[in-house]
Amino acid sequence: MKTKSQLRPTVRRERLRPALNLAPKSSHEEMFTTWRQSWSEVFKGKSLMQDGIAAITVAAVALPLNIALAVACGLPPAAGLLAGAIGGGVAALFGGSVFQVTGPAAALNIMVFSLARDFGPQGVAAACIVIGVVQFILCAFSSGKLMRYVPEAVLAGFTTGVGLKLLDTQIPELLDLDYSLFALFQKLGNFGWLLEVSWFAVLPGLFVMLLVIACSSFKKFPAALVGIALATAVSVHLGWDIKRVGTIAAVFPGFHLPLVPQNQWLNLIVAAVPLAFLASIESLLSAQSVDRLSHSKPHNSNLELLGQGLANISSGLVSGMPVSGVVVRSSVNVQSGAKTRLSALLHSVILFVSILYLSETMAVIPLAALAGLLIVIGWRLVEISTLHHFLRENRMAAVAFIITAAGTLTGHLMMGLCAGTAVHFVNQWMSGGKSVVHDHKAASKPSSIRAVIERASPKRGRPNHYTMAAGGANWLTQIQQKAQLATSAFIHHKASVIGRVVLGENVHIAAESSVRADEGSPFYIGSNSNVQDGVVIHALKEKWVTVSGEDWAVYIGEDVSLAHQALIHGPCYIGDKTFVGFQAVVHDSTVGANCYIGIGAIVVGVEVPPGRYIPHGSVIDSIDKVEQLNYVTDSHMHFNEDVVEVNRGLAAAYNKHNSPKASRGQRRIPAIGTDWRTASDRF
Above pLDDT 90, what percent of the chain? Predict the structure, then answer.
């Protein structure tokens, strides 16, 4: 297999290396590898514009939040600003999550308020150092890996609770009302509350909301930044009397140890340790939530604990307040188009510069404009479809979801997480240790169907889909069926393609590979996919995966690479842009899009979600093992892109080199390409 590009040979060799290295032998090596790879993406400099725009947007959201959270805890505004600028910057430098944005968090506010009340601002700064030390200890014992066992229902409930909390706080902010959303609901029957609304404040917020929603399909357009800038300019030009960010003191106190009386240290440590656990859990939950939002970006939980520990110590040394990874700012970061961890670092730089030099400029941003953005973010975090799925398929999982969301919404995060997790494990115990949460169509599918999958573009397969023969399998009929392939596809003359097989545009079937749709049938191999030397594709009889209403024994999506001597045995589904490594085995499984299956790995009888990395030589044969899988890295995805590109070129070159044979029996199938040809049984 060749992966060297003619256009960028040095870059492609660099990308090949991480994909072929064996997994690190220790957690420390794994932490360093994750950190190095994430910064290598930054130094390539391909996304400076996207990261810069995302950083400005996140900073515009974080600035008023940091001020508000500090004031709510009884601390000076500078404590929140410095915590976000210094602590957030350190976490961005050393943390284990690419898109995580660190700063003061609403979930910590109740405990931070108690610390400020009992020990004062210097006590809060000292507590930051205690929190950092505790997080170092958690990192040393690899405690971060325990977060892999957080149930899907609990994670979705936490994300939903954060979204609901945002709606609860920001809708009144948008309307410029002084009471809570619950109190507003109580007044809906009395229209007098409409007289209390500041409609000049509503306009900037609504404008930002509508612009962000309308431009949601245009990922490269900085709708949030443009909306906030326009709303600010118009409101200032017209002289609207509305709430704005306000004046910020331009001061940096420097690094120094907080002054706490010796007789208070023991009580301070006792009060700070529970806060350390809460901050750690919030950070890791946020990192997992961001992984869900970005779909393909990994995080190293132990490295994230290390980064958070350094961030809290740094915050304490500048008289800041405790920090953690925050779902809200991190979500804004992802949805604003961030590509690397540089965006989180630039966000902190912008905060620091704004403290010193841009306080007057940032002061005129309407709070309602930021509220409009946060309402959109909050609504996107609420996973209604996930709750609906749980209610239909597993009501105990729905209970865990609701309990976790309620605990997060009401400020009792630890209680909600513990109760939700307990409900989940009780449910697991009652069901015999097997997860009863599955595909929402699984309950109604026949026993012969491995999985039911709906693709975004079902039309690609329908016109050329084979109809099942009535009355059971007819081996002779299936063997005599001819493969259908686009004219741009290439099958080597030493490869074997038997039976009802559909090959899309630019598919490359290499020498000594065997694609046998004789027992299980039919097969589908999507455009730009490649089947390399020695690969075997076969399937059990009368077992299928249903893809967009069609039954396939084996369905392989677009831009998929099946490396040398891999075995794909149906019923099986492999999603778009997935790489299957040398001598890997996939049997009776569904593998989502953007996955990377390592050398010699075995995947049997499971459903792998999109964007997962299956390590070299691993055996994935249970739900528990699937839940422990990390996300793929950019290096993995780039490697597959290179392999796909090379094999597309090989298919074109082989087709050009080999003169066309007689075109007897050609069929024209417009679903995938304009020209199709009928294959013989052997090539």
Answer: 32
